[in-house]
Amino acid sequence: MDAVATDTTVLVDYLLHLGDNALVLGQRNSQWCGVGPVLEEDLALANQTLDLIGQARLLYQEVARLQGGDVTEDTLAYFRDAHQFRNYVLLELPASLARVGYAQGDMDWGVTLARNFLYSALMVPLWDALQGSRHEPLAAIAAKSLKEARYHLRHASDWVVRLGDGTDTSHARMQAAFDHLMPYTQEFWTASDFERAAVEAGIGVDVAGLRDVWRATVSATLQEATLRVPSDQGYVPQGKNGLHSEHLSYLLGEMQSVARAHPGAVW
Amino acid sequence: MSTAAALPVTAESIARVRAALDGLTDPEIPVVTLAEMGILRDVRPATDDPALVEVVITPTYSGCPAMGQIEDDVRATLQRLGVPVRVTTQLAPAWTTDWMTEAARDKLRAYGIAPPGRCSAEGTGPGERIVRFVPRAPEPVACPRCGSTHTREVSHFGSTACKALWQCLDCREPFDHFKPH
């Protein structure tokens, strides 16, 4: 622990990265609450959103403990701006094909589930490996989150297969969803400085080492779904370093507005 | 904290605390107690303050909205006892439905919720095989009303994070299934 304690910044950045991933995807998917395609699926996404926000809370609470002072889970969620968030860009994108930030439009169930699939296919092996983190609170959070990520992966896989191997329309839309999202997964494998330092300190996991496992899950599922695994070439996003798409500001604007309009309010 | 707190914690006061907490049920499933659910992990003297009882609870799912309520219930109950107490949330080892007692399983069934099977039978991680649209219960889930195992999963996610929605294909009743976790 001593070697780790000397660099709290790395640990904090690493925990924030994991927490921001969970919070941002949770907030994004919560937009389906009340408008899901069928009641069961509305509940399914709301349930998973609860898991994700719960994971974010545990991680933020640990950051608050490490930073001390006035930092709380709430200040981390509500009073940081977009450039201070360290989530993957993949998770902040709207639930639709590419569009500008202010554009309104229907949400796309295929894009939502394709994203959940790509993310949870990573998080199952990642949480699994993080159970061995030298930072014990993180190992404990990983053990809890792993069980939840398995449910999420199973749910998303079902839908990828159901829609991919469905009608011509659902197949085409699922393929378009993967074509759109796949390039963003490059961010998984491109380590940021704080990730490298976290791996060196034994608190983090080298995500690039999970790429083969992830690929195997993705290929097997897409094959069963009669979908083609699209290219993941192109621009490599850097959300982990605070460089986000325009979509994150809109998402945070909605999430943070009440807390900022009434700072310190309780009920 | 109580001001009359100077007395060290005794085995007798621990037993009193346990007895009081035995009356506390899960806010979402009011027929099972926190102890039966495996949520209440320990009642012990705090290591850093011999006059303080430490009650250790563990969350079921990370986002379980009942945890705040459970913590409040524990505090309120012990305040009435006049015992100075600290409630600690402990994550590791992660909660599993395998900790649920047999008594709890019977009560769930009687309440209309199919109890969870054993976790060890669940698929584990990346190698888990995807089977197309077939509900993957490792053990048959028996209808809590008629006992038939001729049942199907309607949705893996139900009325709370810990339950799935099932239906009996014999008596046609829908029911909740507490997921093995």
UniProtKB/TrEMBL annotation, chain A:
Which Gene Ontology cellular component annotation is one that this UniProt entry carries? cytosol
Q: Name one GO biological process term.
A: phenylacetate catabolic process
Q: Which residues form a coiled coil?
A: none
Q: What is any Pfam family matched here?
A: PaaA_PaaC
Q: Which InterPro entries match?
A: Aromatic_CoA_ox/epox, Ferritin-like, Ferritin-like_SF, PaaA_PaaC, PaaC
Q: Which NCBIfam families match?
A: PA_CoA_Oxy3
PANTHER family of this UniProt entry?
1,2-PHENYLACETYL-COA EPOXIDASE, SUBUNIT C, PHENYLACETIC ACID DEGRADATION PROTEIN PAA
| Protein name as catalogued | 1,2-phenylacetyl-CoA epoxidase, subunit C
Automatic annotation (TrEMBL), chain B:
Q: Tell me one Pfam family matched here.
A: Zn_ribbon_PaaD
Segments forming domain PaaD zinc beta ribbon:
136-179
Domain MIP18 family-like: from-to ranges: 15-82
Q: List, alphabetically, the InterPro entries matched.
A: Fe-S_Maturation_MIP18 (IPR052339), FSCA_dom_sf (IPR034904), MIP18-like (IPR002744), PaaD-like (IPR011883), Zn_ribbon_PaaD (IPR056572)
SUPFAM superfamilies assigned to the protein according to its UniProt record, in alphabetical order = Fe-S cluster assembly (FSCA) domain-like
> Entry's PANTHER family?
1,2-PHENYLACETYL-COA EPOXIDASE, SUBUNIT D-RELATED, FE-S PROTEIN MATURATION AUXILIARY FACTOR YITW
Task: Tell me the protein's name.
Answer: Putative 1,2-phenylacetyl-CoA epoxidase, subunit D
Q: What's the name of its gene?
A: paaD
